[in-house]
Amino acid sequence: xxxxxxxxxxxxxxxxxxxxxxxxxxxxxxxxxxxxxxxxxxxxxxxxxxxxxxxxxxxxxxxxxxxxxxxxxxxxxxxxxxxxxxxxxxxxxxxxxxxxxxxxxxxxxxxxxxxxxxxxxxxxxxxxxxxxxxxxxxxxxxxxxxxxxxxxxxxxxxxxxxxxxxxxxxxx
Length: 172
Description:
BORCS6, BORCS6_C, 4-stranded antiparallel β-sheet
């Protein structure tokens, strides 16, 4: 028996959910996530460990017989070693990420400092250029004032030239 439920009109959409009921349990596929829920999980564990000695435990709370499977110590040791290896690997990855992020942060700080220095230097250069421009304008105004007598002298020279030309014309 298989059932399909979908909130989208097309297959393969991120919100598509497929559910299949199997004889051993229910298989669900939602996006990239796949899950399987086994029916009567404890019984399946008990059957899987039937070659070993079963451990029978009585629950004092509900006074019912619950048989729990015996857990193999080698499996627990192996699981502990693998989880320790995984923890070490995660720690190593986190340390590497921390190192790289520190390097990236240092580079970013260096870039910001370089940009700040460039802006400060440019600001100083602009201030110096503006100061030089105003100084040049002031010098030009002073030179213009200093040149006023030259124009008066040029006008007098022109009059003298005209008088000399008239005198020369009169003498000839």
